Amino acid sequence: MYLTGKIAIVTGASSGLGLSMCKKLIEKGTIVYGLARNKTALEKLREWAGDRFHPVILDITNSDAVTNWVDMKFHAGNIPDILINNAGIGYFGKVEDISLEQWDRMLQTNLSGIFYLTRKAVPLMKQSQNSSHIINIASVAGLVGNPQISGYNATKFGLRGFSEALFKELRYDNIKVSVIFPGSVATPFFDKTDIQSHKNMLQPEDVADTVIHLLETPDNFLISEITVRPLNPNAPDS
Ligand SMILES: NC(=O)c1ccc[n+]([C@@H]2O[C@H](COP(=O)([O-])OP(=O)(O)OC[C@H]3O[C@@H](n4cnc5c(N)ncnc54)[C@H](OP(=O)(O)O)[C@@H]3O)[C@@H](O)[C@H]2O)c1
Description:
There is one protein chain. By secondary structure, the protein is α/β, with parallel strands linked by helices. It has one domain: 3-Layer(aba) Sandwich (Rossmann fold), CATH 3.40.50. The protein contains six helices and seven strands; from the N terminus they run βαβαβαβαβαβαβ. It has helices spanning about 15-25, 40-50, 65-75, 100-125, 150-170, 205-215, and strands at about 5-10, 30-35, 55, 80-85, 130-135, 175-180, 225-230. Strand 6 (about 175-180), helix 6 and strand 7 (about 225-230) form a beta-alpha-beta unit. Helix 1 (about 15-25) packs across helix 6 (about 205-215). It is globular. The chain starts with 6 loop residues before the first strand and ends in a 10-residue tail after the last strand. The site of NADP nicotinamide-adenine-dinucleotide phosphate has 29 residues, from helix 1, strand 2 and helix 4. The site of NADP nicotinamide-adenine-dinucleotide phosphate (NAP) has 29 residues, from helix 1, strand 2 and helix 4.
């Protein structure tokens, strides 16, 4: 896909990987609708980006809000070419220590919110004359189960299944579906956990470059799944 002038929806635009992807897309000349709840962070990105960035204060777990926003903003004459389902949260700990609320928040954000947006974007993309692309940001936690991340694992394994099914369902409609499985990325994701970010983690800008590469592949060329990891994942001083 040639990115200049295309329209993208990116969730989780206020921080980390989503913020990096928005910046890379804007630099390519893409018009970006960036969704998140943090108004201040989205406005800061708007100041940097100018008219090509549209801040959208939206909680993706609110199905009515998602439906109303897509219905209000998009129609046959204004179709998103790209949907990046990036927003996600993780609560870690022993299975007996994960609260019901944490479990529900992870499922709502990492799975249901993605479904709410995707089910509204797909009918529009099916009408498009252009190739379209949906990219879902999973995690290596969508490939490998590990102690103390069972809930997060469940959502990211679920996202892998959702992505594979969609890729097979939508390929004949000229809609690409890709899922990315990153290892640890140095973002604020870890701020509320015991895990310390360090410089051997993947850098969000580098993961964003990979996303740009996926998007820029020729129309009949699909990278359906990609795993990216730090070569040496240990902290430099360990
Ligand atoms: N960091 C890692 O090591 C790593 C590794 C593999 C995969 N991932 C995945 O990468 C994605 C991005 O994570 P990150 O590392 O960039 O973390 P981050 O810096 O914490 O960013 C998470 C983003 O999700 C948004 N978000 C959360 N709940 C939302 C909701 N209900 N509605 C709308 N937006 C919501 C947040 O915005 P607001 O709070 O402003 O709403 C924020 O912009 C996630 O899916 C994560 O699971 C991360």
